[in-house]
Design a protein that fits this description.
The chain is of the alpha+beta class and about 200 residues long. It has 2 domains: about 1-30; about 60-190, no CATH class. About 35% of the residues lie in helices and about 30% in strands. The protein is built from 4 helices and 8 strands, in the order αβααββββαβββ. Strand 3 and strand 4 form a beta hairpin. The mean pLDDT is about 80.
Length: about 200
């Protein structure tokens, strides 16, 4: 009985294999024709175009900027340098001129001019105190120059951008600071505080 079973299985196996192969070939033919059509008509690939990076060019500095700020105009150095501090730091007296006091009859005061590291300070000197009359700063390396540079930088920031010339004044227009900039940095600054 076992022999009959093997004989019938040996005849059924090739038939099953033949049907399987024909089925695979039939499916493959349909897919191949569809692939051939798809390959001959490719769809375009959509690519996003890369936008070039636009770097903002720094705007050209304004010719003249004027700013009204009582603090910056009234205290451009922050702590104002004194005659004694400048002399201790190596300043030299370049001139002394007598000046008649306008408020006290017969009293003579002095206009004292000091030079320190290329900078010039002019003080109105009385018996009681020294008042800064004018300063011309071309060297911003000393501590008072660094403080003045910080004031000028803050002023240009408040003004909205770089300037070739900057004028800072207080609301009464008594204290004035003017500066000329070269390549975005102050090159010359003139400080003229109010004095009577």
């Amino acid at each position: 009985m076992l022999s009959v079973l093997f004989l019938s299985a040996s005849k059924a196996l090739p038939a099953a294999l033949l049907y399987s192969v024909l089925g695979l070939l039939g499916c493959g033919t349909e897919d191949t024709s569809r692939i051939a059509v798809d390959a001959s008509d490719p769809k375009p690939v959509q690519r996003q175009q890369v936008k070039p990076v636009v770097r903002r060019q720094p705007s050209a500095p304004k010719a003249v900027c004027t700013l009204t700020n009582d603090t910056l105009a009234g205290q451009p150095f922050g702590a104002e340098p004194t005659v004694e501090e400048l002399l201790r730091a190596g300043a030299k007296v370049s001139s002394r001129k007598p000046f008649a006091n306008l408020h006290v009859a017969g009293q003579m005061d002095t206009i004292l001019t000091l030079r320190h590291q290329g900078n010039q300070f002019e003080f109105y000197r009385t018996f009681e105190k020294d008042l800064l009359r004018q300063a011309v700063i071309t060297n911003f390396r000393p501590s008072y120059g660094q403080r003045l540079r910080a004031t000028l930088t803050e002023s240009t920031r408040q003004n909205g951008g770089p300037c070739n010339q900057l004028r800072i004044r207080d609301t009464e227009r008594a204290n004035n600071v003017s500066a000329t900039f070269t390549a975005g940095q102050p090159s010359v600054a003139r400080v003229q505080p109010y004095w009577d």
